[in-house]
Design brief:
The protein is α/β, with parallel strands linked by helices. The protein has ten helices and 14 strands. Helices cover 24% and strands 14% of the residues.
Length: 345
């Protein structure tokens, strides 16, 4: 959970004139010049939720030429470098490798552990309203703060955390395009200093699973109706040749294969080599020309436990502007273990 030392100051600013970040007990790390952020009012309405007008960081307009339906949900590494000490920003790192954050992270970033912070410790489900509210309050987050997510594995866990935040209607959120990989490749600062922020009085709504989350019985009806299903796992997992990702342990799935009627598009095809998302034309070529999706389709994505498919859900929903995309987080660990469910190979 939170690993915040009481002797860490609430915020450490960047020394903009010298271009260095000074974490506690560490030598200065070059960052490059950065300009103060402009504050603006911006509508992050999503999926017919009531719009929330908040004071938040000005959107990054450098990504507008990629043809995305919602370029405002992405920020570039340049933009984030200029907003590291913006009081309207909270930076969240969420990784598959839960040790990465402690080894070094973007200045002023806080850690959200996908397993410990977002999942219920007993049931296989996400945290309830009270736990989510406590988490955000402890991170200094409320609706007035723009939350920027990033992580390893081309942001697949960052988009997963982003998706969980959407279950609670927290729409003032963005993804760092390229994630941790691009930040590191550009030689930008990583620190081990853990920031602390004043707790907020954030009040979370009840979690809503109806709009962007799919459950097993819904997936079965979806498949029987021959509606679009996108299996984002590897071809070997899709075919049943393997029941797990390459170089990963077997996680107890009893059968291999895929949900009947599903089309296979590995999640990583949406990303470039540096972890950034492909442009809209390239994404349409993959999802529309290759497997025949249309913008008005009712689409369900799935993988193994919903983490890789959250990346595809994000690409279809925000970058291509699809109106109804749900992520089946039960995914193959549930479907492949369920008695009586049909499987194709």
């Amino acid at each position: 959970m939170d690993r915040e030392a009481s002797d860490v100051p609430l915020r450490r600013p960047l020394d903009r004139e010298a271009g260095f970040f000074f974490p506690s007990g560490e030598s200065a790390v070059p960052l490059g010049a950065a300009a103060p952020a402009k504050l603006d009012s911006y509508d992050f309405n999503h999926n017919n939720r009531d719009p929330i007008m908040t004071t938040s960081a000005a959107p990054d307009k450098s990504l507008n030429d990629r043809g995305y339906a919602r370029p405002d949900v992405l920020v570039s590494t340049d933009w984030l470098a200029e907003h590291l000490d913006d009081p309207a920003i909270r930076i969240i790192e969420s990784d598959e490798d839960v040790l990465l954050y402690d080894m070094g992270h973007i200045p002023n970033a806080q850690k959200v552990d996908w397993h410990a912070d977002l999942n219920d410790p007993i049931r296989r489900d996400y945290v309830d309203r009270e736990a989510f509210q406590k988490l955000l309050r402890s991170k200094g987050i409320d609706e007035s703060k723009t939350v920027v997510f990033y992580g390893d594995k081309n942001n697949w866990w960052a988009t997963y955390a982003f998706w969980v935040f959407q279950l609670f209607g927290f729409t003032n959120a963005k993804i760092l395009d390229g994630g941790r990989l691009k930040w590191e490749q550009e030689g930008r600062a990583l620190v081990t200093d853990v920031p602390r922020f004043e707790p907020t009085n954030y009040t979370a709504p009840e979690r809503s699973d109806s709009e962007i989350r799919a459950f097993r019985d819904e997936v079965r009806k979806h498949a029987e109706a021959k509606k679009p299903l996108v299996d984002v796992r590897s071809p070997d997992e899709f075919s049943g040749a393997k029941t797990h990702m390459a170089d990963y342990p077997q996680e107890g799935v009893l059968r291999g294969g895929h949900v009947p009627g599903a089309k296979n598009v590995p999640w990583s095809r949406a990303a470039n080599a540096n972890g950034t998302f492909k442009n809209a034309d390239e994404l349409r070529g993959i999802y529309e020309k290759e497997i025949g999706l249309k913008k008005g389709d009712d689409v369900i994505t799935y993988c193994r436990i919903g983490e890789r498919s959250a990346h595809t859900w994000f690409a279809l929903t925000y970058l291509l502007g699809y109106d109804k995309v749900r992520n089946y987080d039960g995914s193959w660990t549930e479907w492949g273990n369920s008695v009586g469910l049909p499987i194709e190979r």
